[in-house]
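Q: what does this look like with magnesium ion bound?
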Amino acid sequence: MYFYRGNMSMRKTKIGFDLDGVVIGKPFFVPDFVMEKLVRLKVDHKLTYRYPESKGEQYIRYLSHHPLLRPPIRKNIKLIKELYKSNKYELFVVSSRYSFLDERTKDWFRFYKLRKFFKDIHINMKNEQPHIYKERMIKKLKLEVFIDDDKPLLNYLKKRIKKVDLVYVSDQHKHFSKK
Ligand SMILES: [Mg+2]
């Protein structure tokens, strides 16, 4: 079956957003180097991510993802709303949050009423290594732009995915800086 979709200029550009550090702020009371230690196996910026195996640690992570502890990053939310309103983009979330954060993630979008701005929200339900998961999803969703705050991960993607605009965003800076 064929559906008329308008001329080419009507086609929407697909943009993917990482979640933590791009849409959602990190908990303000946890220093960066501790965050880094919790998430990565080594602090030397290698691409090996830790999966919290114990139920205890999963629970601590679950607690630390309470919506009140994870405020939206205002300047990026503003941009997301503008992109959404322009009607020229389809926005996706591709987050490597593990499966035990599924409900927490849904709670967050409900709490801040931000669900409607995204066509789909994907998290890492099979608990793959984050870079493997994101590479797979960017290809699957045919994203044209992907925005993330993880430099080693973007470097990995840059080598593996051509024709996708990879954008590095840092919490410290006011604007997106192109890598
Ligand atoms: Mg991130």
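The chain has six helices and six strands. The helical segments are 32-39, 55-64, 74-86, 102-111, 130-141, 151-160.
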